[in-house]
Amino acid sequence: MKKNIALVTGGDSGESVISLQSAKIIKENIDKEKFNVYTILMQGANWKLMADDDNESDVDKNDFTIFKNDEKVKFDAVFIAIHGTPGEDGKLQGYFDVMGIPYTFSGVAASSITFNKYFCQSLAKDHGAIIANSALVRKGEKYDLNEIVRITGLPCFVKPNNGGSSIGMTKVKQMDDLDEAIKVALKEDTEALVEEFIEGTEVTCGILQKKTELIALPLTEIVSKHEFFDYSSKYNPLLADEIIPARVPEEIHKKCKELSLSLFRTLSCKGVARFDYIVKNNVPYFLEVNTIPGLSAASIVPKQANAMGISLKELFSVLIENVI
Predict the structure, then answer these.
(1) Taking the model in full, what pTM does it have?
(2) Who contacts 69 (Cβ-Cβ below 8 Å, separation ≥6)?
(3) φ and ψ at residue 53, rounded to 5 degrees
(4) CATH for 73
(5) CA separation, residue 181 to residues 156, 227, 258, 268 (Å)
(6) Do the strands 3-10 and 77-80 form a parallel or antiparallel pair, or are they unpaired?
(7) d(Cα 159, Cα 177) in Å, to the nearest integer?
(8) pLDDT given at position 234
(9) CB under 8 Å to 206, separation ≥6 — which residues?
(10) Which among 170, 169, 178 is positioned nearest to 150, based on CA atoms?
């Protein structure tokens, strides 16, 4: 008997457009012989079933059910395809835990901790990761630009502490531009993270959970044609090269995979997660974790999985079957 899967998409951040793209690819490639898929668009408190016939219907938030053809539909699991809030920061996970409905990807604690870059880096450092020097700025609090630069140096990166897709991110080369960059980041979040610039090779490692087995996917090297891997570079294939396997020494492949596996376990990640690094002088500097990475055919994790012979259909089935 086929399982009913709620595919939730949308969200309340600048990444909502990317979430819709991911959901489209997931729905097209999910195994229809195993799963009935219902796309749920979430925008604030407005949760609606997006039916193939363009008829919308509200979701009953009391038990997360819908009515279709005058019949009540309950879900066996939820496939979370929301990048950013509320899908990647633990909020939806808490709701589904209360409802008793299993879901793909990480739980409340792992999602909320990894979404907060400053917390995540601090925890990763305690477990052996090397990180860049950084300073945290909170909205409404005074900050000293000179003290920040003393910690991070110049150039530096300024980004929202809770966010993704490089939205609100700026590379700052001179002191005169730092305050404006902080203001840009604080338009997207209540906290801005200012980080030391590490010049090196950007690589990323996906970890895939298959029931009790953890699989380290091939390391990918990212070469942006912009000054850094910004929003447009991430979503325009003409603006960045993603090279599998990464052109780094075998020692770096081993280090990044081992550290990613260790952090996946330490942070209690689930399903799949992507761990990003900058390699300088054969030392990988940990940047962040993406607990709901992009899942289109052009996204990094699916490319890594494909390099190991794992198709999109198989990848999505693995993620669902982990929880049902």
Answers:
(1) 0.91
(2) none
(3) -90, 15
(4) 3.40.50.20
(5) 10, 16, 35, 33
(6) parallel
(7) 14
(8) 46
(9) 216, 217, 220, 272, 273, 274, 275, 293, 300, 301, 304, 305
(10) 178
Residue 16: its pLDDT value, please? 85
Among 175, 196, 217, the domain boundary falls at 196
Residues 94, 118: one domain? no
Both 278 and 180 in one domain: the answer is no
At 43 the three-state DSSP class reads strand
User: What is the domain-level CATH number for residue 241?
Assistant: 3.30.470.20
Verify that 118 and 254 share a domain, yes or no. Answer: yes
Find, among 119, 112, 101, the residue nearest to 8 by Cα.
101
Q: What are phi and psi of 287, to 5 degrees?
A: -105, -60
Interacting residues of 185 by C-beta distance below 8 A, sequence separation 6+: 137, 158, 159, 160, 161, 168, 169, 170, 192, 193
Chain Cα centroid distance, residue 13:
13
The tokens describing 278, both together, are 């900058």
- Report how far apart, in Å, the C-alpha atoms of 16 and of each of 36, 81, 88, 149, 294 are: 23, 10, 12, 33, 12
pLDDT tens-place string over residues 147-182:
999 999 999 999 999 876 567 889 999 999 999 999
pLDDT in tens, 186-236: 998 899 999 999 999 999 999 999 999 999 999 999 987 655 444 444 445
Q: If you search the block for the tokens 């890594």, which residue do you land on?
A: 304
Number of H helices, E strands in the chain: 10, 17
* Residues 14, 159 contacting (CB under 8 angstroms): no
User: What's the domain range around 294?
Assistant: 112-130+199-321
